[in-house]
Amino acid sequence: MMKITMNETTPFRKADGSLVIAFLLVAYGALLIGGIAGLLQSLVRAGTITLPFGIGYYQLLTAHGVLMALVFTTYFIIGFLYSAVVRTTGRHLLTGALRLGWVGFGVMTIGTVIATVFILLNQATVLYTFYAPMKASPWFYVALVHVVVGSWICGLGLFLQYGYYRKHHPGKPSPLLTFMAVVTMALWIIATLGVAAAVLIQFIPWSFGWVETINVMVSRTLFWYFGHPLVYFWLLPAYMCWYAIIPKIIGGKLFSDALARLSFLMFLIFSIPVGFHHQLMEPGISPTWKYIQVVLTFMVIIPSLMTAFSLFATFERYGRSRGAKGMFGWWKTLPWKDVRFFAPFMGMLIFIPAGAGGVINASNQLNATVHNTLFITGHFHLTVATSVALTFFGITYWLVPAMTGRVLTPRLNKLGIAQTWVWVAGMTIMSGAMHIVGLMGAPRRTAYTTYGGHADATSWVPYQVAMAVGGTILFVAVVMMTVNIVMLLRAPRGFTEYPVAEEAEAADAERVPAVFERWSVWIAVVVALILFAYTAPMVEMLNTGVPGSPPFRTW
Amino acid sequence: MHIHRLEKIWLMFGFAMLVVFLVVLGIGAYAFGMGTPTSHHHSVDPSKVTETAPFDQPGIRHVEGSVYEANLIAYAFGYNPDKMEVPAGATVRFNVTSTDVVHGFQIPGTIVNFMVVPGEINHVEYTFDEPGEYLVLCNEYCGIGHEYMYTTIVVN
Fold first, then answer.
1. Which of helix, strand or coil describes residue A143?
2. Which of B9, B36, B49, B98 should be substituted to probe chain A, the one whose Cβ sees the most A Cβ atoms within 10 Å?
3. What angle do CA A488, A492, A494 make, to 5 degrees?
4. Parallel, antiparallel, or unpaired: how do β-strands B90-98 and B67-75 relate?
5. Residues of chain A positioned with their CB less than 8 A from the CB of B10
6. Nearest-CA residue of chain A relative to B108?
7. Which of A76, A552, B62, B99 could share a disulfide with A27, CB 3.0–4.6 Å?
8. In angstroms, what separates the C-alpha of B144 from chain A's closest C-alpha?
9. Strand B150-155 relative to strand B83-86: parallel, antiparallel, unpaired?
């Protein structure tokens, strides 16, 4: 299954490969520790264990959320984006880009270590949303700033490499994967400006005691301004794999280069000015502005539909080129026994119910039924923890060998497929139970309780036990993945290709509109939409004269 | 830029569905009154909640006909009052605020589900047609005793 095509692909330079591997190792370290926290949580929630040594449930919940949703994803994504840019812009990173990558990595890692220590010391049990006026140790917020600023430094490195390529290839569109990496990073930087503002202007002065109170609604709004694009920052790298890498792995071609770019630009534009749909059940924001942001939220359905079309068109075209007949004959021609295809494919498949759940969550009044229930937890365990995570796993099976000059053995491929099945089984049970019990009203972010033996709460317990069964299976899958990573790092030496798909009709490359890379236009559109969606409600929030809140430590 | 004919059809169909869906949501919200909480803005100093009307006398009170008003304070880790009673068919207007951190206010089995933010008063109205003991729980993490934070409404 590993074809060596030296003429097309030469090995990665060791220095570039090491940077990518460093990011991946921190990501998978976070997955393992976060997985242990997740296992314990699910057992506590089922009422089967009590935690020893005075460890708190919410402390574990904080660790799980921060390590999985922020550390695992951000590190994996930055490592992957760097690799994609190196692969498609030339053979190696510019010295400046490499240096910025390592400086960014260092700053992020200092932040991650400090944050983890304060969580473990029970000084920051505020969950990954750190809602004011609950106050963590000020050093926790300082640590978060390091993670964000470090990621910006990494982003500068990517932009530097991109700018260099554009300068030396005037009049030509940049390579698709590089273009997608730039959009993903731009989305991240624009989104994190919100959370950085909240932390720097509000949380740090307040937590150190330099100011007495904090404006709670403003802090929540800034957080969710970041919190929704964050989910697209997770998803877009998975889409990079689905659009531009999977076609190559199955032996087919990319459906349309220009449409793939258009969908990424639409995600950039429509995923940012929509944070209010996370705040639909809150006071202090007028229902009209909430509804406007709900409408904007649903605009991301368009690029999602484009992506679905493009993927299945690629599969079908490939199948037909192999002589498949009938409407679904192409299904049999796909390489089901190749983990590089199978893991991301299972991710795509699960994205169908996952996306449908998202439509429910954002639906204005329908949100009252599911808001802050386990339905939401079930939803993001399908999106991030299945669609995105399985795609990242699938990428890992060729990315690690490609970076380290090794090969994926048939045995490791089989272990990867087994790991995928275990993950899917665990997540189906856990997330399925979460969706059902969430509709019955069970709250998220809550330790085991029957609320004084109330009949409603008692009826939730069997589902919470099912969640623990799923959680335990998932932990097995985390251990399997950890073993696979160790084996990948020790795999036999050799050459592994970094798969990048070509376009179906080569001439299309010429038809990519030049405006797609006129960043001033797209950034201006994004800024205009953000100002439209946020100015009036923010002015209102600042002018209502709602008194600020002093800090509280309630754990 | 070339767009495949089938993709054009697919996108037009998708976009049309989206428009229909958003119109349905909008009609639900504005014509049938199924909007999101707090269409009117009220705030209160979180440190002076217990001295400020109506929260100086938290509890449920009869307004007129079948309409009741419930003024509740959420705090770490409970609600004041910790028990309420209304007759079946009662329409209850909830006014809830917090004296400390952010809390939730959710009645499983109903569509009463909203955030309680310090400094703000959140409102939701609900008609209890079925008799029974309704659980009210906090669904936003508020500290170490979060899972003990609940109250009940008895509908006779």
1. helix
2. B36
3. 105
4. parallel
5. 305, 309
6. A441
7. A76
8. 4
9. parallel
CA distance A29 to A159: 27
Task: Name which residue leads in pLDDT, A206 or A52.
Answer: A206
Confidence (pLDDT) at A54:
83
pLDDT single digits (tens) B85-94:
999 999 999 9
Phi/psi at B73 (nearest 5 deg)? -110, 125
- A518 assigned to active site: no
A368 to B113: CB separation less than 8 angstroms, yes or no: yes
Asked if B37 and B122 count as a contact pair (C-beta separation under 8 A), the reply is yes
**Which residues in chain A have Cβ-Cβ distances shorter than 8 Å to B47?**
547, 550
Percent of chain A with pLDDT over 70: 97
Q: Of A381, A393, A435, A475, which one is the catalytic site residue?
A: A381
Assign A512 to helix, strand or coil. Answer: coil
In terms of C-beta density within 10 A (0-12 exposed, 13-18 middle, 19 or more buried), how is residue A459 classed? middle
Which residue among B11, B141, B150 sits closest to A305, beta carbon to beta carbon?
Answer: B11
What is the spatial distance between Cα A549 and Cα A31, in angstroms, rounded to a whole number? 35
**Residue A145 phi, psi dihedral angles, 5° rounding:** -60, -40
Q: For residue range A320-377, list pLDDT tens digits in order.
A: 888 888 888 888 889 999 999 999 999 999 999 999 999 899 888 889 999 999 999 9
Entry pTM = 0.95
Q: A440: which chain B residues are within 8 Å (Cβ-Cβ)?
A: 108
Active-site residue, from A379, A435, A463, A516 = A379
**Partners of B68 in the beta sheet?**
B62, B92
**Which of B47, B120, B150 lies at the smallest CB-CB distance from A546?**
B120
pLDDT in tens, B124-139: 999 999 999 999 999 9
pLDDT for A322 = 87
* CA dist., res. A414 & res. A446, Å (int): 38
